[in-house]
Amino acid sequence: METRADPNRRKHQVQASERTLAILRAVLDHPGNTVKQLRPHIAGDRPSDQSLRDHLELLVAGGWVRRTFLNQIVVGPTLVAGAKAISDFQMLLARLRQASVDGMTTQELAAETGLTPRAVSAAMTIGIEFDCITPVGDDRFRLNADGLLLPPCTVSEEDLVTVLKDFSSVSGHDAALVRLSQADGLILSHLQPAPDGTSLLVDIGADAAHATASGQAALSWVDDAQRHRYLQTHGMRAFTKRTPTTIEALAPQLIREPGRIYTAEGQYCAEGACLAVLVRNGPRTDDRIVLTTSVRLDQLERARDRLKSDLRDAAVALSNLIDGPLPPVST
After folding, report:
1. Which of 94, 151, 257, 311 has the highest Cβ tally under 10 A?
2. Cα–Cα distance between 93 and 128 in angstroms, integer?
3. Average per-residue pLDDT in the chain?
4. Which of 329, 321, 330, 331 is nearest to 151 (CA)?
5. Nearest to 264 by CA among 185, 207, 208
6. Rg of the chain on CA atoms, in Å
7. Is the Cα torsion angle 254, 101, 280, 147 positive or negative in sign?
8. Largest pairwise CA distance in the chain
9. Residue 312 half-sphere exposure, CB side, CA atoms within 13 Å?
10. What digits encode the pLDDT tens for the residues 255-312?
11. Which residue has the higher pLDDT, 2 or 53?
12. How many Å apart are CA 263 and CA 197, to the nearest integer?
């Protein structure tokens, strides 16, 4: 299976992830189902039909599963050889979630789980294959947050609003959370106006993902095929003369870089700019939660540096609230 280490080689519409592993587990436990029959057997929140088909395409290509002439999904040769390692890795993954940011070694995992070092090593190979963990030298393994299904967000609305209010009070600007949905586009929530009661964010809509910093932050962390499908669904119409209206024009702005602050100047709103930072990311589209703010163009130059600093501080506070037990991952 191809991995993110060589992104130019990826030929499929999804990246391997903990979700792919959950689908594989369902095939192992319930072989012979069609795609529609398989979906209820997938642990955790279930993928859409399109996402499930994309993941299965990845698994078929790797020999993990195969389709029969009746379009049933059955165990493939790669899965037959790796079934025990998959079960072992899912147990080890639960232990790694509790570990410190430094991760754990093969010997440490073996001592805590009762598995042999050889079994741990085989399981870790599965984890790397499915992009859930990263080897970090000295036989140590660390969670790869980008490949994990994130825990449910249980933070209270009051806590979220408090962070946004604090940001607005300190920065003097509005704030909002934006979630990217494959089906519904950009969904604005928890809008906190600026102290003077104004906001340029109120008009962010589903068709504006390519024209806002919020959309750029979220779309930069999906692969090319998902991005193409999203933009085809939600359109590429121009909002101002500065709005990119082709995928080719948008692509240079979608730079995948942890902690990057995205700025869309005059692309969605002619008189204003939108700044945003990705707060939460995972292999589910709806895992992408972005913190965003706006500023008038005539104020942008003098406010940019301070806004970026305030935005980062608020993003850290939100991330700590939202992700809870998931340990941070060094980049």
Report:
1. 311
2. 11
3. 84
4. 321
5. 208
6. 21
7. positive
8. 64
9. 9
10. 888 889 999 999 999 999 999 999 987 666 667 889 999 999 999 999 999 999 999 9
11. 53
12. 22
* CA-CA-CA-CA dihedral for 13, 19, 25, 31, to nearest 10: -40
DSSP assignments along 111-156, one per residue: HHH---HHHHHHHHHHHHHTTSEEE-STTEEEE-GGGSPPPP----
- Specify whether the CB–CB gap between 278 and 209 falls below 8 A: no
Residue closest to 206 by CA, chosen among 176, 191, 228, 185: 185
Domains in the chain with CATH codes: 7-147 (1.10.10.10), 157-323 (3.30.450.40)
Judging by DSSP bridges, how do beta strands 175-181 and 140-143 pair with one another?
unpaired
Query: Nearest 5°: phi and psi at 241?
Result: -65, -15
81 or 264, greater pLDDT:
264
| DSSP H or E segment with residue 73 | strand 73-75
Nearest by Cα to 22 from 5, 34, 38: 38
Residue 7 has pLDDT above 50, yes or no: no
- pLDDT tens-digit readout, 262-275: 999 999 999 999 99
Can you give the pLDDT at residue 285? 62
pTM of the model: 0.70
pLDDT tens readout for residues 29-65: 999 999 999 999 998 767 777 778 888 988 998 899 9
Q: 275-299 burial by CB neighbour count: b if 16+ within 10 A, else e? A: bbbbbbbbbbbbbbbbbbbbbeeee
For 12, 156, 271, the CA distances from 267, given in Å and listed in that order, are 31, 33, 9
The dihedral region occupied by 184, where left means phi > 0, alpha psi between -120 and 50, and beta the remainder, is alpha
Question: Which of 264, 260, 263, 295 is closest to 279 using CA atoms?
Answer: 260
Helix axis angle for 77-97 and 117-129, nearest 10°, is 100
Beta bridge partners of 56: none
